[in-house]
Amino acid sequence: MTINKSISILSSKHNSFIESKRKLTESRINTNLEEIDPVFREYEYPVCSWPVLIEPDDVQSLEEMCLKIPKLLSQVPELYFKNDVSRIAQFYYDNNYMLAEFGMMCYQKKLATSSRLDLARTSKGFKILEVNMGPSLGGFQVQSFEKVIRSLHNNLLQDNSNTYHCRNIQTSYFKFLVGEIVKQVSEIDKDSEVNIFVGMDMIGEDLTINTMNFFNNLWEGELNSIGLKGKAITGNLNDLEYVKGNILYKKNRIHAVTLLNSDLYLKPEVFRAYVLNNLYITSPIDIQMIEDKRNLAILRNLAEEEKFKDDENKLILDSIPYTEIVEDKNVFYKGKEVNLPQLLKNQKNNFVVKDATGSQGKNVFVGKFMSAKEWEEAISYAVKNTKYIVQEFCDSIDFIAPNFQNEWSKHKLIWGAFGFGDIYGGVWVRMSEVKTDVGVINSAKGAVEAIVLETGV
């Protein structure tokens, strides 16, 4: 599908939205309003006061990728590494054989996972830049600003027919989470109290209370919708007790554990309960294995060897740009065998080198925005590090959006689309003005966030 070089974030509805704005004087919303959940007040990133509108064919494309690509990625350890613990320990776990064994125990349970695809919408459609997996997926926060954003536009305020539909990322995740717990954890029936333990750094009483209130509202709401009850609990992770195969916290049976901080660790007994199907963990050890960005290169390689169904091979090759693990090796690029480091040096503007285990735009090197010397240093560093990938540079088409001065100008967009097992959770956007573009569009690096509404559904 060929797309115009410059289109509005408001799609074909641009003119009607511009004419129907209600009381909009700023391009960014005030995130310190009473109608916003206390946990998200004074949100650390700017949020656009205008929505991004997408058409049904975009929704269909995003949904297909979100539901299929993570499942295909999860087959990499089996199809490529043949479930060989020694090879998996070397590749994913820095030769820690014991950790790899634990990882494979978790992997063999074949559980569904939550994911977020980061995509660029290019002149050839959406292209997947990264696949993030596990519970620590940013982007769900924007959902909490929907009411404020709708209040600024007559089109949205009077949208009784739901012409502009917003998928609720937050409730979709909790629907998935509760569903997986009920399916996987033993001895849950209609009389059970289903409890989840939320591990987090205690960084202030008010924030902890607000976070738990927010979590509990979603948790209890989803449990009640299927006729169950329970609560979310937090405290010291070291106080979790292993009793007869179950995990208890102050005499409450815990059915699930989620960690809001990636640097928190669980005791081995907690994983023992998980292996016994007496506990659900949202971030088991195999997450380290399946979320490694090098899997994108391996997945493409498997698709080129036609290891999947025809439609799956096509989806992989169409949606994931050329990706390779950075090594001093020969590769095939556009039908020719070439030395990879030399290819990167010769075609600087066509490639991006990134840390395969990084996040928030850290250690991402975009050749187009670097000097030749900086680029060669990045290539040399990546080759020595061995946990870097290179991707063909996917340039976002230009979208017209409001800048900080409330003037409509060209922006680049990165889309974050969510998949929760078999549930498509929706999408949000980060955008950066073209005149300040440095190739990395990330909230932590100054991008503006925006809510996405579906039209015509």
Automatic annotation (TrEMBL):
Superkingdom, natural source: Bacteria
What is the protein name stated in its UniProt record? ATP-grasp domain-containing protein
